[in-house]
Specification:
single chain, mainly alpha, 9 helices, flat
Length: 271
């Protein structure tokens, strides 16, 4: 005869079983371990970055050199501080180290969060991590190959014909390119932001479509901050992919909301 207590207990599918539970102190120890491992990886990456940084300088200055050539000016940059070039190489080495260590850092993040997730959530987080890296690199590529040429050509040509000749400092140019590339890399994470807002029920596809005109206003403000030129063409070039990414976020939100409704319906039927 079947035991009634066993038949009445809810059956949890094997794929929904969460990982082992940890105490708060164990979480802190685990977090400390993952942070230390990530910092070690970034340090090793930065040391490797020091050796390749001079080659990356040639790649970084290519857009401004091309803008100067287009304006029939000498394609050279300067530094006015004795340690200016060294400081730039050190900073560039750290950024290269972060990029080289990013797979290990992401793996450490995964090892920290995976034990507390259900199996279907682990698949979602894996896709999220890869999407984050892909979108960030996509933003950097868009900034380097599309945004910077428009912006630098405008900044160089605006002084032509006057008494002032552009003479760019490598350090100031490096700060500018970091602002643009990292800014665009973060801005391209818009679908990920919308994913989380939808996951927690803060926004819905209907809400996003209804408030589209406000989103355009925010995009225009971000474009004005990230692009240090008053050129309307440059702002439009920036805004075009942002509007596209917003609608990608709307589609992501629709998928998240539909899956949540289906899961809630299945849970209601199970009870």
């Amino acid at each position: 005869m079947t035991n009634s207590s066993q038949s009445d207990s809810p059956i949890v599918p094997a794929q929904e079983e969460p990982g082992a539970q940890m105490t708060f102190f164990e979480h802190l120890v685990e977090l400390r371990k993952r942070i230390i491992n990530s910092l070690i990886a970034i340090g090793i990456g930065a040391m490797a970055g020091w050796y390749v940084a001079p080659h990356f300088v040639n790649w970084i200055v290519e857009p401004v050199k091309q803008a100067l050539i287009n304006a029939h000016l000498e394609p050279k940059l300067i530094y006015t501080n004795p340690t200016g070039y060294l400081n730039m190489l050190l900073t560039l080495s750290i950024y290269i180290g972060i990029v080289l260590a990013s797979p290990i850092v992401l793996h450490q993040i995964w090892l920290f969060v995976a034990p507390a997730l259900y199996k279907h959530e682990r698949g979602a987080i894996t896709g999220f991590l890869f999407s984050t890296v892909f979108l960030f690199l996509g933003g950097i590529a868009f900034g380097y190959f599309v945004m910077l040429p428009y912006m630098l050509n405008f900044l160089v040509k605006i002084s032509l014909g006057g008494p002032i000749t552009p003479l760019f400092s490598i350090n100031e140019y490096f700060d500018l390119i970091l602002l643009v590339l990292l800014g665009l890399g973060l801005v391209f994470e818009t679908p990920i932001l919308i994913f989380f807002l939808s996951l927690f029920g803060i926004v819905t596809p209907q809400f996003l479509l209804k408030n589209f005109r406000y989103a355009i206003l925010v995009i225009a403000i971000v474009a004005a901050v990230v692009t240090p030129t008053p050129d309307a063409t440059t702002m439009l070039v920036f805004m075009a992919p942002m509007v596209g990414l917003y609608f990608v976020g709307v589609a992501v939100s629709a998928v998240v909301v539909r899956k949540r409704k289906r899961r809630l319906a299945e849970a209601a039927e199970a009870h």
